[in-house]
Amino acid sequence: MGQSQGKDRLSRRQGRSRAPSGSCPLGGEMPLPSWAAAVDEDLLGQWALNLMLMNVSTRKFGGAVRLPGGDIPAERGAGVTRSAVSRRFVALSAETMKAWMAADLSALDLLVIQIDGIHIAQDLILLAAVSVDGNGDKHPLGVMEGASENAAVCQALLDNMVGRGLDPAVCRLFIIDGSRALSKAIRNSFGRSAPIQRCQVHKARNITERLPKSLHASVRRALRQAWELDDADKAETLIRNLARRLEREAPGVSASLLEGLDEILTVTRLRLPTELRRSLACTNIIENMNGTIRRVCRNVKRWRDAAMALRWTGAAMIEAAKGFRRLKAHNQLPSLRAALLAHQAECAVGAGLDPVREAA
């Protein structure tokens, strides 16, 4: 019996001295399970994408994925070098961009679409679109590259959205910065009666920048008074009076003030509540997103091509969407829906009368 007990004790000691399966031998290094999991291609790719969107450079990636002590050794081929991180970011951002630009839009109840240009480089402009649904939630829709905001680029972006399920027969409010090419493309795709609102902030800025400083305060005050009026006819009269007052001192500015006057007062003509009108009279939604794009892209020192700009901008737009809040006046969106339906019905009746008038 004593010999049997001795053998049992010896076997237990030998069992404790053996390294468990999947661990290091005695005297070696114990591999960290979390690090082994991080070496996985998909996880490291997501890690690289997230850190680069947080402005961590590829040179600092190896230190960013380690513990605060920074003493976890990365073996050769572990995938934390500058070039490996860059390759992962390129591959994952391209895959994300492709899936995003092909996502179905038919299930979204979109009431508002804002479109604006983003200047990436001297000869490269990206056209981006953001929407607001019936609940006030915001959605980035897409981005398209071009040398300028010309009609071809605008049409390509709109065609992409229509091809993904955006019904052109549904009346929506479009908010733009004032590009004529964009207005033309919208009316080609969504009908001549599509309501388009030009950004009032852009308009006021463009006007005051061309005036002497002595006129800035009075012109801003007059424009603000016109924007706040509930009656579109009175607002238009006020703007025309301002244009006549500027004819002597700045005739070119006077003509610019009247250009696109109908589109400047679209939200007023729709008779929207004041708070909702203020939210939809400018492109602030997309301007805020542009701030995120500039922050994400500030580490890029040289844009190699349009594909690179699209990948970075698309990733930044998706990142910005994580911080989107509901529209401030989302409780008043039912009034916008009713106004759009009434506008569509009125335009349909007017279109039906035109052939009768022509025949007469």
Shape: globular
Distance between the termini: 122 Å
What order do the SSEs take from the amino end to the carboxyl end, as H and E?
Answer: HHHHHEEEHEHEHHHHHHHHHH
> Largest beta sheet, briefly?
5 strands, mixed
Q: How are the strands of the largest sheet arranged? A: 3-2-1-4-5
The unreliable regions are 13-22, 34-41, 67-72, 355-360
Average pLDDT figure: 80
Helix fraction bin: 55-70%
Secondary structural class = alpha/beta
Query: Total strand count, please?
Result: 5
Helix tally equals: 17
> What's the alpha carbon Rg, rounded to whole Å?
29 Å
Strand percentage: 5-15%
Give the tally of structural domains. Answer: 2
Characterization of this structure:
The chain has about 350 residues and is an alpha/beta fold. It has 2 domains: about 30-70 and about 80-100, no CATH class; about 110-345, no CATH class. The protein is about 55% helix and about 10% strand. The protein contains 17 helices and 5 strands. It has helices spanning about 1-15, 35-40, 40-55, 60-65, 80-100, 150-165, 180-190, 200-210, 215-230, 230-245, 250-260, 260-265, 265-270, 275-280, 285-295, 305-320, 335-360, and strands at about 110-120, 125-135, 140-145, 175, 195-200. The chain has a 5-stranded mixed sheet, with helices on both faces. A hairpin with a 2-residue loop joins strand 1 (about 110-120) and strand 2. Helix 5 (about 80-100) packs across helix 16 (about 305-320), helix 8 runs antiparallel to helix 9 and helix 9 packs antiparallel against helix 10 (about 230-245). The protein is globular. About 30% of the residues are buried. The model is unreliable at about 15-20, about 35-40, about 65-70 and about 355-360 (pLDDT under 50).
